[in-house]
Each structure stands twice: as C-alpha cells, then as structure tokens.
From TrEMBL:
Pfam families: Chalcone_2. SUPFAM superfamilies: Chalcone isomerase. One of its GO terms (molecular function) is intramolecular lyase activity. InterPro entries: Chalcone_isomerase, Chalcone_isomerase_3-sand, Chalcone_isomerase_sf. Residues 110-296 form the Chalcone isomerase domain. This is Chalcone isomerase domain-containing protein.
Amino acid sequence: MFRQLAHRGVQAQRQANVRNISKSIAKSQGLTAHRTGRLAVAGATSMLLVLAYYSHNADADTIRLDTPNTPTKPILAGVLQDLESHLSKDSDTGVKFPNEVASVHDSGALKLLGLGVRTVSFLSIRVYSLGIYAEESAHSALSAVENVKEKLTRTASQDSDMVGEKLMERLITSPYTFAVRIVPVRNTDFGHLRDGFVRAVQARMKTSQLGAEESQQVNESLQTFKSFFPPSKVPKGDELTLTKTRSGDLVLSYKGDTLGRLDSKSEGVKFISTQLLLAYFADKNPISPKAKASVINRL
C-alpha cells in the first residue's frame, strides 16, 4: 500500500512539472505553437516531443524504496536552458527572437542576422523591437566579404565604392530571402505601423534617381501595400513580419497569417521590397541604429 501511495504521489508531481514547463514554453517569445504558415523555431518541436515522452512515461517509472529517486529538477532545468539557447534577447526591451526560423515562402530556414529597438522622437520612445533574418547562403555571402565589418560602417564617397548600404543593397537585390520580424513594445495599431513603412519608402524615393514612370509605379504599389493593413489594433507583443522573397515579392504577415503580397513583376514592388530592407542599413539615419550595429557585430 505504501508503494502505491508513493508511486501516485510521484506521478502527480511529475505531471505538475510537465504542466509548468508547458506554461513556460508558451510564454517564451517566438516558441509558441504556430498554425500552418507561421514562422516556427527550428528545434522547438523536438523539445516538445521530449516533454511528451517524459509525461507519457511517468506511469511506467517505479518507486524503489531501497534507493533514492533521481531528482527531476536538473532534468527540467536542462530542458528550459536548452530552450533559451535558441533565443536572442533585445537588451533594451527584453523581447526575445528565435535564432532560426522556418520560412513559409521560397527558402529554407532563415538565420537571425541581428536585432534591435526602433525609437522615435528626441525622447527615444521605444516603439518596437525587430529581428532581421536572411537565409544561410546570404549570411555566408556577406561574411565572405573581406573586412566586411569595417566596410559596413563606412559611407560610400563615390558610386564605385562597395561599402555601407551599397554593399547591403547588392546583397538584398540578389535572389535571397530576407525578413524583418517586428514586435511592438507598446499597444499600437496597424495604421501607425503602416504610415511608418510608407514614410520610409517615400524618404528613399527622394534620395533615389527615379524616372517619372518608375515613380508612378512605386506610388501605385504603395497604395496597394497600404490596403493590406486592417483598421484595427496591434497589441503589445504581437508579431508583424515583412518578407522579401528570392523573386523580390513583398509579403506582409501578422502572427503568421498573410495579409497581402506584392508581385515583383512590377518595378515599383522591387523598389519597395529592396528599399524597406535597406532603410535598416542606411548610411544616414537607419530605422534602427542598434539593429544595424547588431548585424555588423554578429558577423
């Protein structure tokens, strides 16, 4: 009878431990279970399988009264530590980003290049944290550039100089998939985020030498892009993602669901998808200086 009571007590404790781990995982930024089409953290599934196995086999374990039972806390702590090792944290906001995500478009896994916070006004009000991702081949191509860190911190003095944002433009316009994952750190709305993206593109238009026809195409594509944003709120902590595909399409998604896709057959779309990304690496006034610095430091 004592064996049965002890066995039941251990079973209840282990099941409670499993529930606590599941709650911790659910709270971890970027490792929530995603519906089909959402970005998923590589390796999260395998960790959940470990938890499922542990829960399933709790009944199979026996209690030995002649030897001490193996403590479960070190095992559980190891699982959570492994979970944290797949994340990078924005030191300014505490928002965590997975180091690798699976693309839902035309590439394989995307690697985190860097992360940082977006601030506005002279008060440096924090608006959102962001993670910049690219497929592994893009990361390898950038890392292979000689003295790449030094070159990315410079500004081109002439058109032939392949440094600073010109270097990043060559990479971004190549057939690689890039993504910017945005997580607001305060409650906002789609209209506010939309206007920020549109202003960034319009600022790039002013510094680019666009002909009348191309300017018209960009403006028409911008109107379509603006229509993707619903007239609703975006709570703190939700995820908005901008993805430039290998073909140059621009995909806007919210919590994994696609809100709209601009076809790169239009020259205006190619300009928008390139310049929105390039604005984060601008030589002057990048959208997030800390994200740009993070990309350089992680190379």
